């Protein structure tokens, strides 16, 4: 089904959420229509944030909003769905459209498998009626489902379309171009030429995939890299917990702008605990690159100034290879808590692969390497 036809059938006029690769046709269509016109469309920092925005829209208009997300974000909507939206509280209806990663019987990456198994169960536990949209679903069927959903909306209940792989087709492709003088992969090439055996915790998505391939090309060990394949937004928290157990080591955390915004409070916690010899590296390409390229709200945040306000000891920003080399030379000798913001172009190689080791193999090798002086 074309994403444009699906949107027509839902009747929604306000959209908010977090982009998902499985919902890319839908996200692209919404962006083509509304860009980031906040009266119609807001790309949220996280899925709970989207629920709050949607609730406010309903309070102001009485119209049912549409919230889009990957099923990995279900955890973020449980609190608002149970304690804000549900009829036992306010009875605010929302139409959720959820990309079903890890759907049983469909090949997917390991971080999605358990989430995929429990997706429908979680929705049922939250009293959210759901319908699975597949390649075979017709417009007439969606229309009938929406009739049923609207009856539930009138009773203050939320409903969800759970979207299988390939169920939606693109109606058009927006231009998400984010220019820069170096790619993320080029930046990681330079960065890792300075880190030696220091432990690196890298964020979920293409940054970790590129880091893995860089090590492969150089015939280097992967044992010093913890590749956070899931749990978007939590890499800096993982790195903080690690740094406190090994204060003798310089710890690098490679984060992305979308991930940083998703759980921005983690940066405050990091600053408050203030580990020594910790380098937070923000790869800033202004986009949700791994899931299609929709822009983030990072342009509204002066991250270096935020770090200074949080009392980071060293704050550097760069946007070209020469300034990155200079920054890494400085930071590899620095003490205290450091931030390095690297401005990069959006996008990645079309032939970018995935790690060929399992998450458990990565973890055990990483833990063993930590014990090596």
Write the layout of secondary structure elements.
Elements: H1 3-10, E1 15-17, H2 24-34, E2 41-43, H3 47-61, E3 66-70, H4 74-85, E4 95-99, H5 110-125, E5 129-133, H6 139-154, E6 159-163, H7 184-195, E7 200-202, H8 206-218, E8 225-227, H9 235-245, E9 251-256, H10 257-262, H11 265-273, E10 278-284, H12 303-309, E11 314-318, H13 321-331, E12 337-343, H14 359-370
Parallel strand pairs: 1-2, 1-3, 3-4, 4-6, 5-6, 7-8, 7-9, 9-10, 10-12, 11-12
Which descriptors apply to this entry?
single chain, 373 residues, alpha/beta, 6-stranded parallel sheet, elongated
Estimated share of beta-strand residues: 15-25%
Biggest β-sheet, characterized?
6 strands, parallel
Distance between the termini: 56 Å
- Residue-averaged pLDDT, rounded? 96
Q: What is the gyration radius calculated from CA atoms?
A: 21 Å
State the strand order across the main sheet.
2-1-3-4-6-5
């Amino acid at each position: 089904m074309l994403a444009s036809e699906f949107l027509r059938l839902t009747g929604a006029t306000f959209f908010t959420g977090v982009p998902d690769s499985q919902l890319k046709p839908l996200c692209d269509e919404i962006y083509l229509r509304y860009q980031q016109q906040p009266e119609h469309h807001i790309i949220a920092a996280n899925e709970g944030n989207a629920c709050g925005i949607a609730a406010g829209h309903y309070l102001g208009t009485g119209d049912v909003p549409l919230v889009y997300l990957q099923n990995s974000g279900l955890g973020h909507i449980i609190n608002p769905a149970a304690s804000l939206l549900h009829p036992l509280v306010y009875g605010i209806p929302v139409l959720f459209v959820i990309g079903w990663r890890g759907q049983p019987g469909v090949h997917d990456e390991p971080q999605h498998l358990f989430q995929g198994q429990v997706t429908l169960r979680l929705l049922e536990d939250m009293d959210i009626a759901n319908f699975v949209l597949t390649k075979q679903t017709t417009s007439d069927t969606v229309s009938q489902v929406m009739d049923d959903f609207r009856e539930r909306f009138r009773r203050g209940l939320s409903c969800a379309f759970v979207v299988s792989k390939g169920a939606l087709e693109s109606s058009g492709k927006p231009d998400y171009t984010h220019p820069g003088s170096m790619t993320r992969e080029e930046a990681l090439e330079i960065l890792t030429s300075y880190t030696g055996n220091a432990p690196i915790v890298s964020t979920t998505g293409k940054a970790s995939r590129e880091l893995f391939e860089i090590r492969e090309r150089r015939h280097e060990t992967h044992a010093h890299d913890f590749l956070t394949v899931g749990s978007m937004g939590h890499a800096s928290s993982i790195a903080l917990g690690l740094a406190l157990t090994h204060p003798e080591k310089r710890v690098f955390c490679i984060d992305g702008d979308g991930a940083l915004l998703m759980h921005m409070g983690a940066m405050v916690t990091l600053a408050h605990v203030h580990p020594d010899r910790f380098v937070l590296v923000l790869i800033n390409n202004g986009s949700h690159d791994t899931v299609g390229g929709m822009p983030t709200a990072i342009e509204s945040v002066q991250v270096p100034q935020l770090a200074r306000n949080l009392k980071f000891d060293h704050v550097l920003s760069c946007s070209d290879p020469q300034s990155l080399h200079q920054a890494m030379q400085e930071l590899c000798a620095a003490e205290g808590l450091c931030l390095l913001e690297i401005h990069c172009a959006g996008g990645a190689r079309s032939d970018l692969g995935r790690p060929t080791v399992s998450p458990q193999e990565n973890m055990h090798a990483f833990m063993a390497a930590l014990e090596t002086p």
